[in-house]
Amino acid sequence: MSLNVILMGVQGAGKGLQAKRIEARYGIPQVSTGDLFRAMRVRSDSLARNVQNIMATGFLIDDATTNVIVADRLAQRDTRAGFILDGYPRNQAQAAFLEEHLAQQGTSLNAVLLLELDLYVAFKRAFGRVTAADGSSYNCYYKTGGVDFHWLADVNGQFPPRLEATQADSDAPLRRRPDDASADAIIHRIDTYVETTQPLIDYFAAKDLLRKINADQSIEAVWADIERALDQA
Ligand code: AMP
Q1: Predicted confidence (pLDDT) per residue in 158-205, tens digit
Q2: 182 CB near ligand 1 (under 6 Å)
Q3: 60 within ligand 1 shell (Cβ under 6 A)
Q4: Distance between CA atoms of 178 and 53, rounded to whole angstroms?
């Protein structure tokens, strides 16, 4: 039997990190539409350029493009035992497409895990986030250990201060995702989540697929709740 899981939650709720743990524990791949779109950065065709431009604003890519990318990814062999969808579906049309697509493949969803997080905390988690070369992430408001953070004022005072982060021991710079560095883009992402993604909570609850997890706990505590929910699924 396969384990087909959707991981829902506002940006900053820790979906990516917990998806990696589910991947390791249950042997099913994380399918992140955000990662699939970011991977298109190396391409220079007009579709790829259009995707990068839209992502930089915090708005959603159109459903047709997104659905094709997900269907292609789910056609790969490694999803046979199941998958963890991270960042998809993000609206009603995508949810309907996914369910129809899975039904055609003779399978269906087993669980929708909702990582619940206060939206102000979500803003700080995204805005303060930086990533090291090895993929580990830190946050200037929540997780600073071993990293030096500085807000650099613009010399002419025309632009907001810029966040710079370096490893305390090696001075190696950490990266900030361009769409996290823009407060406006984060606000658009959170607004989009409230307007278009949150309605899916009721939709999946009505199908008895929804499992709520408190995302405002330690990574370990969130993980324990996820394992409990998935073992029951
Ligand atoms: P994420 O990494 O999930 O925050 O996604 C980053 C960006 O990719 C989003 O702000 C959207 O522009 C785009 N994106 C990711 N997933 C979807 C989706 N399911 N539908 C439309 N756009 C998406």
Answers
A1: 999 999 999 999 999 999 988 889 999 999 999 999 999 999 999 999
A2: no
A3: yes
A4: 11
